[in-house]
Amino acid sequence: MTKYVVIGGGIVGLATAHRIILDRPDAQVTVIEKETGWGAHQTGHNSGVIHAGVYYKPGSLKARFAKAGSESMVEFCQEHGIEYDVCGKLIVATSEDELPRLNALHERSLANGLPVKMIGQAEAREYEPHVAAVAAMRVASTGIVNYGQVCVKLAELLAKAGADLRTGTKVTGLRPNGTGVMVETTSGEFAADVLVNCAGLHADKIAQLGGIKPPARIIPFRGEYYELAHNRTDLVKGLIYPVPDPQFPFLGVHLTKMIDGSVHAGPNAVLALAREGYTWGKINLAELAGTLTYPGLWQIARRHLKYGITEVRRSLSKSLFAASLARLVPEITEADLVPSAAGVRAQAVKRDGELVDDFLIVARGSQVHVLNAPSPAATASLEIAKHIVSALPTR
Description:
This protein has 395 residues and is of the alpha+beta class.
C-alpha cells in the first residue's frame, strides 16, 4: 500500500488528497494541516468567485484549468448540495481610453474558448443598473460559491474514505530517504512514499525542508476588503470588474456579490509584513527580513513604485478606496463601506523580480511541491488535483 502525505489543508491540498483516493483507491492518504480547521488562509479569505479564465494567457495552465475548473466546480457543488450561482460578471470600461484594453481582453477570452460578448452602455445597465460604463464585456460563465463549504465537503469525503486527517499539526522537518520522505511534525512522524506540498503561503519553506531549491520565493501581498452596508447591497447585482492594466500585477478593486448576498469591495494589494499578515499590525520580523532581503522584491518595487504607493495610500484612506469603487458605481460613497476581513496572496517571485504568472509545480523524485497557486486556484482546484495526481509516482 502506497503512503501519500499531503501538506496543507486548503482547497488545493484537500482536492489533491481526494483525487488520490478516487484514482488510487488502495492508497493510504494523510493530510497534515497546521491550523485547527480547513481552508484557514487563502481559501478562507478569498472573494468566492468561480473564475471563467478571462485574464490568462491562452494555453497556460491557468487558462486551461480555470475554464475546466469553472465547470467541474459547479458539477461538484451540484453533486454535493453546495449553494452556488453562475451569475456572470461585467468587465467595464469607464472611459474611452480603456476600450482598446477591453477589446484585447475580449480577443483573449475568445482564444480561451469562453462565452463572452461585448455590450454597450445600455445593455450593461440592464445587467447592472448602477454601473458606469462606456462599454463592457459580459462573461456568462463566472459564478460565486463559498469555498469554505467546498473544503468542508472534501474533508468529509476524505474521512469517509478512510484518510488520516491531522489538523493542528505543523510540519517541522522533512527527511528524504531512499524510498520516500519522513515527515516530522508537532504530532510525531509520518512516513511518506510520496509527498505533496500544498502549503500555500509556506510552500517554498516546505520545499527547502525537503532539500529542494525553489525557483521562486513566496512574497505575501495583503488584499484588503470592505463590504457594502446592508442597505446598499442593491447597488450591485453580480460582479463588476474594471479593465485591468497589463502594466500592473493585480486586477484592481472590484465589486463582488457573495453567495450570502453581501457585496465585497476590493481587494487592494499591499506588501504584508508577515506571511499571515492580515493587518498592518501583524509583523513577523524573521519573515519580513527574508522578504526585504530578497532581490526580487526590490525589482518589483523599482518597476511598480508608483502603483505600490497608490495601493498603500488606498489602504490607509477609506475615501480613496471609495473613490476607486465610485469609478465603477458612482453612487458608492465612503459612508457605504464597512470594513471586512483581509486576505493574503502567496505570490511566487523570481530573483529578477518577475512574478510567476502561471501555476508552478516542481517534482523531484518522491516529492511534488505546488509553489505557485494564486487565483484562480480555488476555481481550478479539482483540475489542479487531477494534473498533480496523474503525474505522481507509484510505489
